[in-house]
Design a protein that fits this description.
Layout (H helix, E strand, L loop, with lengths): L3 E7 L13 E6 L2 E7 L3 H7 L7 E5 L11 H10 L6 E5 L4 H11 L7 E5 L6 E5 L3 E7 L7 E7 L5 E2 L1 H6 L7 H5 L4 E2 L5 E2 L1 H4 E2 L5 E6 L9 H4 L4 E5 L7 H6 L5 H11 L4 E4 L9 H10 L3 E3 L5 E3 L1
Parallel strand pairs: 3-4, 4-5, 5-6, 14-15, 15-16, 16-17
Antiparallel strand pairs: 1-2, 1-18, 2-3, 7-8, 8-9, 9-14, 10-13, 11-12
């Protein structure tokens, strides 16, 4: 199975606490490393959990509240000190230039790499990045300011060729691609060799969706339908449902209701309010609606 992992670097919310770091996650897709959100101190979390900064290919900033992007100056400076030369893509709302441009002017010639800012569309679904093995897209959330969720997919891989079978039936090289894609082989004498005799199944497609920050919003369900793992913010317990609605956040139970509607396989909740010294109450409320719920905790790795 190809690699697909999500590592929690921070799962708190805006008010700093000693219990949780501000929001940030790493997504490893077949060795390609991406970051979602970058709260203060994120580069220290990467060091703590032994993430290889040199592998970082791109950052996805969900929205421009400080707890989700104030870690960028420290991270960019650290990458520069480490001698990075490869471009770094940052997907974010265009207003982030107000912070990034003065920083880049200040760093000046000390930086040996270029930052490419790719603006997000807060109004609709959009494909951001795709190659032969992965796909990353974005969709709108419901928050006080423009906010986006993200869907990361590792595509289904082609069927695996059984070398000894291919040699036995003398399959021409030029037909191997079609056979990887599921075609049968027809020999010169007309004999049909079924594909399942020549190959074994490839890896299935897998998907991860990230939704933070957002009010309860069933409108996101089509974008996260059936994902293997869903991260959905759960800032408040049900007793603070009115406060959640006022601030355009979700309760743990509401996050679980979204997971249930979207028929996801697993739910991870996070973005905890600083009022909770004990987050077990949030997990309890989520599990009552969606049993396969888990808590985000700094350093925890989720395998897909």
């Amino acid at each position: 199975m190809s690699q697909f992992q999500v590592t929690i670097l921070g799962c708190g919310s805006a008010m700093p606490t000693t219990l949780h770091n501000p929001p940030s996650q790493l997504v490893n897709m077949n060795g390609k490393l991406f970051m979602i959100d970058c709260g203060e101190g994120t580069q220290l979390q990467m060091r703590k959990f032994k993430a290889r900064m040199s592998k970082l290919q791109g950052l996805f900033i969900s929205h421009l509240h400080g707890d989700h992007f104030f870690g960028l100056p420290g991270l960019i400076t650290t990458l520069s000190m480490l001698g990075r030369t490869n471009d770094l893509d940052i997907y974010a709302h265009g207003e982030i230039r107000l912070m990034l441009n003065p920083l880049l002017m200040y760093l000046g010639h000390h930086m040996q790499f270029k930052i490419n800012l790719i603006p997000l569309n807060p109004e609709g679904h959009e494909l951001l990045l795709e190659d032969e093995s992965i796909r990353i897209s974005t969709f709108p959330l419901k928050h006080r300011i423009p906010a986006n969720g993200f869907r990361f997919e590792v595509k289904k891989s082609p069927r695996r060729i059984l070398r000894e079978k291919v040699d036995r039936y003398q399959v021409p090289v030029e037909q191997l691609r079609a056979i990887k894609e599921g075609a049968d082989f027809v020999a010169v004498d007309g004999t049909v060799v079924s594909n399942n005799r020549l190959t074994t199944p490839g890896n299935p497609s897998r998907a991860y969706a990230y939704c933070s920050d957002t009010a309860y919003h069933p409108g996101i369900v089509p974008y996260i339908k059936g994902v293997d793992l869903l991260f959905h913010e759960a800032t408040f317990a049900e007793s603070e449902r009115e406060r959640a609605a006022e601030t355009y956040h979700s309760t743990a139970r509401e996050a679980a209701e979204i997971a249930k509607m979207a028929e996801v396989k697993r739910l991870v909740i996070g973005h905890y309010s600083s009022r909770y010294n004990e987050i077990g109450i949030l997990l309890k409320e989520a599990v009552e609606t969606f049993p396969n719920s888990e808590l985000a905790v700094e350093g925890k790795v989720f395998d897909l």
